[in-house]
Amino acid sequence: MDTQAILDLLPKGEGLLPKWQLLVAVMAFFNTVQNFATLRLTRRLYMRVPPNYVTALQARTFAVWTLTSAVVRGYAAYHLHDKRIYDIVLFTYLIAFGHFSSEILIFRTARLDSAVISPVIVSTVSLVWMLRQYDFYVKP
Predict the structure, then answer these.
(1) Is-above-0.85 flag for pTM?
(2) DSSP string covering the chain, please?
């Protein structure tokens, strides 16, 4: 596949947010595969609980949630102008932010280290970016 063919697959929407949505969706897909394949990285995320608390069932459930988010965000990359799609993808980041924040601050099953910092940064940056750019992408 040549470079132009790859570029033609990228979202055509204005700005960088559609491309960011696609990048996050692709990263989420790889995280889904990781959660189905091994517990090693998932256990690194929840380091404050005994390893036997992080089960294969939990990892697969997390994988399905992550895959769902990847599909929603990937679809949004090409349809950010649609208010319904924009709102739904915004909520996926809010849910992710809520999940990781509660695991760090309330349940204390995770700590803010290299395993957790990436989803915290992605969800926070995406939330702020999408809220600030709402009127640019969503037209009445």
Answers:
(1) yes
(2) --HHHHHHHS--SSSSHHHHHHHHHHHHHHHHHHHHH-SHHHHHHTTTS-GGGS-HHHHHHHHHHHHHHHHHHHHHHH-TTSHHHHHHHHHHHHHHHHHHHHHHHTS--S-SSHHHHHHHHHHHHHHHHHHHTHHHH---
